[in-house]
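User: Thanks for the earlier help. One more: Geranylgeranyl transferase type-2 subunit alpha. Can you show the sequence and predicted structure together?

Assistant: Of course, both are below.
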Amino acid sequence: HGRLKVKTSEEQAEAKRLEREQKLKLYQSATQTVFRKVGPSERQAGELDESVLELTSQILGANPDFATLWNCRREVLQRLEAQKSPEELAALVKAELGFLESCLRVNPKSYGTWHHRCWLLGRLPEPNWTRELELCARFLEVDERNFHCWDYRRFVAAQAAVPPAEELAFTDSLITRNFSNYSSWHYRSCLLPQLHPQPDSGPQGRLPEDVLLKELELVQNAFFTDPNDQSAWFYHRWLLGRADPQDALRCLHVSRDEACLTVSFSRPLLVGSRTDTLLLMVDESPLAVEWRTPDGRNQPSHVWLCDLPAASLNDQLPQHTFRVIWTAGNAQKECVLLKGRQECWCRDSATDEQLFRCDLSVEKSTVLQSELESCKELQELEPENKWCLLTIILLMRALDPLLYEKETLQYFQTLKASRAVDPMRAAYLDDLRSKFLLENSVLKMEYAEVRVLHLGHKDLTMLCHLEQLLLVTHLDLSHNRLQALPPALAALRCLEVLQANDNAIESLDGVTNLPRLQELFLCNNRLPQPAVLQPLASCPKLVLLNLQGNPLCQAAGISEQLAELLPSVSSILT
C-alpha cells in the first residue's frame, strides 16, 4: 500500500535468520506431534482433547495461517461443548477469544483467524457484539485498509443489527482521518442505499438529490486533497452511476427468406434455463420452437433465434403477427409481416432509450455539468492526473456523447500521453475509446435512419455492442487495429457486405452462419493459413472474397485449396 520497508543491516539479518531457524525446528516438532494426535486411530482413542488446543496454540501463535489446525481446534471445541459445564465452557470460550486476538496481533490479515472468530461467536447463545465492534475499531485504527477486518465488521454489524446510520458515521470518522481508504468508501456505497431506499417504482440504486450533493461535496474534498489517490475517484464514479438498466427485449426481426425469427435482449440470456423462458405467439397462437444462438454455442447471449415453420409464413393471408414474450424479464415485442414483404422488425431506438449512457447518469444534468466544471478546474492544477482525465471523459459521455465527441477524443489523447498512465493499461484506454466511438457511430446511424454503418479509419482495437447491429446490411471496419472478428459478429443476421481491409485480423470466428453475407473484403490482414477461413463455409450466399495481402496468399497451390474449402464462393481474390 505504498508504505516503505525499513532496511536492515547484515548483522540484523543474520540474527533474524538464526532466530527463524530455531523457531522452525520448534514449529516442525510441534506440528508433527499434532498430526500424530489427530490421526484416525488416535481420534477413536479419545486423544482429540484439550492437549490438542495447547499444541495447536503453540503453532498458530507463530503462524495463524494454518487452516488444518483451525479445523482441529473447531473439532475439539465441538467435542468439549458436550463435556463441559456452562461455567467451564464460558471460560474456554473467553480463553479462545483472547487467543484469537493474540493471533490477529501476529497477522491482522489472517483469513483463518477471522473465520474462526466468526464460527466461535456464531455458536454462542449471547455474543458480546459491542466488544467485537470495539475490536474492529482497534484493528482498523492500526490499518484502516485491512479488508479482512472490514469484512468481519460487516458480519458483526449484521448480527448485532447495528443501524446503517451508525455504521455510516463510523466510515465518516475514518475517511475524515484518511481519505485514502477504499474500504470505507465502498462501505458507504453499501450503506447509503439502505438508508435511502427507492420505492419499487423508482430507479433502483440512485440516491435522493440532497444526499447525492452532500456526498459529492465530501468526495470532491477528497480528490482535491489528494488527486492521485484512486479511492475517492472510484467512489465518485459510483455516485454518478446508476443501477443496471431494466430488462428489455430490444429488437425482434422476422425474415421470410430465411424462415427465421431473431430477438436481442438488454443482457445475455441462457434461453431454456429455469429463469429465462421465451414464449412465441404467431397470430395469437403459441408456437413451440427450438431456440439457439447465432454462433451455435448456446451459451449466454444477447441474441437468440429460431426457425419458423412454413405455415407461419405463407403468403395467402394479408399479414402474420409475431410476438415474443420474455417471462422472466416481464417484456415483450411484436411485429407484423405483411403480404409481399420479406422481413419485418420492431426495435428500441438507441437514441430514445439512451442505451449507451448507463455508466454515468443522474436525474439532473446540472449536477453532471457542475461536476464536469469542477474536474476541469482540478485538471488545470493537475494536468496529467489520469483519474481526473478519465472522469472528465465519462462525464462528457453522460451529458452528450455526440456534442462532446471531438473534445472527448482530445482528452483520450492527453490521457494516453500522460506519464501517470501505466503502459500496461494503455490497451484498456484504446478499448474504451473504441467502445465510445462505436456507440457514437451507432447513434449517428440511427439518427440518419439507415442500415449502413461506417467504422473505417477510427483506429478501433475492439468491437462491442454488436447485438445493436442486428439490422445492419453494410458494415465497414477497414483501416483499424482489429485482431479478430469476434463470435458476437454472428448476430448480424442482415449483413450483406463486410469490409475489414487493412487491419491485423488473424481470426474469423465471428463470420459464421451469416445467411445474407455476399461480399467479404479482408485485404492486408494477418490471416495465416487457409484453415482460418473454415467459418466462411457456413455463409450460404457468399460469392466474393478478397484476401489480397494476407500471409496465406503466399502458400503454394492456395487457389486450389481455397476452391476446395469454399466451393460455393465464385470469386476468391488472392
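User: Great, one quick takeaway?

Assistant: Residues 358-362 have pLDDT under 50 and may be disordered.
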